[in-house]
Amino acid sequence: MLKLQVERRVAPLWFRPLIPLVAIVVTFVLTSVLILAAKANPLEAFYYFLIYPLSSQFSAVEVLVKATPILLTGAAVTFAFAAGYWNIGAEGQLLAGAIAAAWIGTLVEGVPPVFAILLMIVAGFIAGMLWALIPALLKTKLAVDEIVTTLLMNTVITFPISFLLNGVWRSPLTGEPQSPEILANSYFPHLIPRSRLHLGFLLAWAIIAIIWVILTRTPLGLHMRSVGLGQQAARFAGVKVERTMLIAALVSGGIAGLAGVGEVAGIHFHLISGISGGFGYTGIIVALLGGLNPLGISLAGLFIGLIETGAQSVSQALGVPIYLGNVVEAALLLVTLSMLILQHYRIRRAA
Amino acid sequence: METFVIGLLAATLRLATPLILGTMGELFCERAGILNLGIEGTMLLGAFVGLVVASASGSLWLGLLVAVITGILAGLLMGLLTVRMGVNQHVSGLGLTLLLTGLSYFGYRIIIGQRSVQHSIDTFPQIALFGDLPVLGPIFHQYALTYIAILLVPVVWWLLYRSSFGLKIRSAGENPEATDAAGVNVFQVRYQALAIGGGLMAAGGAFLSLAQLGSFTFGIISGRGWVCIALIIFANWEPVRVLWGALLFGGVSALQLRLQSTGIRLPYELFLALPYLVTIAALAIAGRNASAPAALLKPYRRE
Questions:
Q1: Options 3.40.1000, 1.10.1760, 1.10.3430, 1.10.3470; which CATH number does B2-113+144-289 get?
Q2: Closest CA to A154 of A282, A271, A68, A278
Q3: With contact defined as beta carbons under 8 Å apart, do A321 and A34 qualify?
């Protein structure tokens, strides 16, 4: 009988850059079962998933629109994870930013657009920080696990939103559960006429550039990365571990808040209950696929933007439920992580 | 007043049921050394599969059984990632939750479709354990799964602390190297713990769709899985304390439902948020002294 054994070995250098590509292929092979279950042709579905969105200018721009909040939440998650702070709360922090934007946007009557927009951005950042504050303080002062608390805070924020949308902000005319429309002077300017691509896209790249500088070129970044690598060692080296984590957690929350500002001020112009669609969780996928480095998350964010747009076109063209996109994203994460481990092993015939 | 208290206690037991099941499932995983953040997704999958199978077959128990089997499979997938390959447990668990959430939504759309009217089924009947007795009668007018969940507490306690299987699980979670040296297959024990855990989590989710609601909504779990993770810390990884924690959360949930109807002029969303806020507060009080299994989060590799 053929006997196989697994042995450790060093992966050849040429293989590493191929991992994302192989992971994408494996993911699509695995998920084609679902496409068949939806009575569609997998190859046709992959065409609508990966190629069709790039075949027209309109849908290619839409990829960037979809990537905008995901790049921001990806940056937010990366910033916290880099310091070893497991902020799983980007979803809630995004929504806090969205609430702030929806509120400020109705108050800025007569304010020049530049200041109105700046005000919204600052308010959204602060709101995201505030929503990140309780788990961050519990972690740094009382050593309470931040994963559980940030996750719970994601559920908690749905209640004030429901209160606002069904109460004080409910439209007296239509009864729709949505906030009043923000004033036109607080709209994010659009980068391409007649598209939905807005200022938030540039903001995302600016933030990614800033976190790259902070993480690689400043003492704070050095401290953060040392805490991320090991708290004990960082403490021995004189790093103020709790303070560094607190800063990382709050800035992370602020960045996630900006994603919410962009969705309100650039896309919807008011707060609705489903405004996020899980961007906070998708940000975790982006951060991890991007290997927690700014260049990586840029590519991962754009790719996930493509998947999200592709899921829409598959759904429209072939009637496959749009949630296929969520499955593909999660499967891609798990397959990639597995491959990063498996590259260190190979199967050979036992001697 | 008396009917208020009796109603409150009955609702407490009902609302605690999915949490007892889910947290007991998580307890197996964590005691064996694996933090399973796939719980939220596994509960959702259980709720979805339970409902779909029950409505297709007409048998609620078959729905529950198939839900538990898919939960076991979800646990084994978690095992493949974290036990066999040693992928980071936080990330694997979150990824699993995202995957199972996507799969449940996708499956629901394919099988049930998008309807204007909620697809609903007749739920499990409630069983009056003490018949028409005063006080006990109305309190113990519950679903079978609630009784099973409560009975599970002493069973799990016995299994963990008095059986050799439980000893293997606990030692795999405390000191896998020594466990391995003693001739126990750590990988196998962890797989088994994850399988049992996944099955229980799925049962917790299925309770919501098959007993409490009789339908499936995308928000059916709404963070209950995360509450279970919190309850484990609150309970300091002890099964009996898990029961108290679940009853506390269930009690606060039941209380908020009743406070809403008393006409106190506060937004009802505040009451809805209350159980979650109490959970966070409980963590803040209990979290510092919590002592997790020593090998939790550490992948075991045989060199």
A1: 1.10.3470
A2: A278
A3: no
Cα B60 to Cα A233: distance, rounded to the nearest angstrom: 55
Nearest residue to A71 via CA among A277, A285, A320:
A285
Interior CA angle at B203 toward B244 and B34, to 5°? 70
- Token digits for A125? 């950042």
Cα B265 to chain center, whole Å?
33
Q: To 10 degrees, what angle do helices B2-31 and B224-234 make?
A: 80
Q: Where are the domains of chain A?
A: 1-38+321-351, 59-215+242-319
Distance CA B105, CA B40 (A): 14
What percentage of chain A exceeds 90 in pLDDT?
Answer: 81
| Record: contact A285-B98, CB cut-off 8 A | yes
DSSP class of residue A323 equals: T
pLDDT at site B289 = 66
In one-letter notation, the amino acid at residue B26 is E
Q: Which of residues 21-50 of B touch A (CB under 8 A)?
A: 37
Reported as a single tens digit per residue, the pLDDT across A77-135 is: 999 999 999 999 999 999 999 999 999 999 999 999 999 999 999 999 999 999 999 99
**ipTM, 2 decimals?**
0.93
Asked if the model's pLDDT at residue B138 lies above 90, the reply is no
CA A248/CA A220 separation, integer angstroms = 9
pLDDT at A209 over 60: yes
Residues 203-222 of B with CB under 8 A from A: 222
Tell me the pLDDT tens digit for each residue of B118-133: 788 888 988 887 777 8
